[in-house]
């Protein structure tokens, strides 16, 4: 328990780091962040003072700067405890490896695929592209063209739209710059049409692709939303237009929202933010 944390238990943990560290202002900031990262429940001002062997006024000044920059958050005024702040957690969130994300979400994708009998997958925004991270295909399903690592068309794929709907206008324009390829007769290529669709997605948390990238096939997707974090991921189902849109659109949409929330909770736990609710929807920047 964090309340039981004492300088006596902490000091041996940092002796080697402190002895080897160069005592510069930047190094002091990092030493505080390293301590906060090790204790998700928070660490107090007095504990940091004793463990880091720095004057209380110095530690307090460093903490104020870190809080002001969004790198730390004080759960109580003046003395803490202090935890990693939203700005730093956003960096950690964006830096999670695809392998780790796949390990985390694969059981949920498998459950969703078993319930729907359709191919289910997770996508991620990075380097101004949306690519697939993990995919589960039922044994009776031969539609496996969404392989991990595949780049999804940002203007056509439901999984990409679900993510782009929550990006800033600058990011959206950068991703959708230049002539957009016409992939089928249903492909939308005008920016204003896509922006209108993004507005609907922000309201419903559901994105659709109805024969826009592959003739005869459809996709339904929902963004992974964690309050205080950028939207980087979406979960999607792909199959025939008849199976997804004509027969099961409402049912699958509800399932996707529920599974998106479950994945958001799992990612939040990893980031030490389990206490935050996943129901709040961020607005685009």
TrEMBL record:
Superkingdom: Bacteria
**What is a biological process (GO) this protein takes part in?**
negative regulation of DNA-templated transcription
MF (Gene Ontology): DNA binding; DNA-binding transcription factor activity
What residue stretches are annotated with the HTH iclR-type domain?
Answer: 23-86
* Keyword annotations of the record: DNA-binding, Transcription, Transcription regulation
Matches recorded under Gene3D superfamilies:
3.30.450.40, Winged helix-like DNA-binding domain superfamily/Winged helix DNA-binding domain (1.10.10.10)
What is this protein identified as? IclR family transcriptional regulator
Q: Which PROSITE patterns match?
A: HTH_ICLR, ICLR_ED
The segment(s) forming the IclR-ED domain are 87-269
